[in-house]
Amino acid sequence: MDWTTPEKPAEFTENRLIEAILTKHFPINSTLPAERELATHLGVTRPTLREALQRLARDGWLDIQQGKPTRVRNYLQEGNLGVLSALARFSAYQPNDFIPNLLNIRILMAPSYTRLAIERSPQEVARFTKQHITLSENKQEYASFDWEMHHKLTILSENPIFTLILNGFRELYFPMACVYFQSEKARNTSKAFYHALYQVSITPAPQKAEQITKQVMEESLSLWIKISTMELSLKKITN
Known about the structure:
Elements: H1 9-22, H2 35-42, H3 46-59, E1 62-63, E2 71-72, H4 75-78, H5 81-89, H6 98-120, H7 122-129, H8 139-156, H9 160-167, H10 170-180, H11 184-202, H12 206-238
Antiparallel strand pairs: 1-2
């Protein structure tokens, strides 16, 4: 039995419009057709279209002003976490530097939320990170554990902004991590990191945890660039 929640008309409309913006069918600073024409083209009612347009305006995709045509905004400069989440879903249309930029943000964030988590809940961090000893060499298993650990650390930091930002690219994280954890070096690097976090959470040593995390996040970025470059080369060869 398929328990997948069917896509609602407004969600369908929103996704179609985002795709049209990302493919430059409606480029930045262009204006959308009139509501009646756009609703007919999308095959939805005008109330459904208005709901989708309001959502897109809220997230920074569109500029809606009464009496003026709806304008496509520069979403990378004017958007919010909703744009980040959408870019994670529409991976085929991401800018080339999107994932490295995300990883650079993680370099800035992860050391802080890891230090805070160990300052505030060292026993909880130790309890979770101790589970790394049961990891197999399965890339999906590593991807799941890595996500759960970072998510847990953001919650234990007691700063919900960290969690909200991380959740913004939840849909991208798992497929990206599966590519990353194909590499034995990546798995070994992360397993050593999990063990180090376990050790510093027992002590506890929050400042040391911050230093270790920064170093490993920087190594992860370098590894990702090498792995993704190799993946791209293999695709070119096979094509």
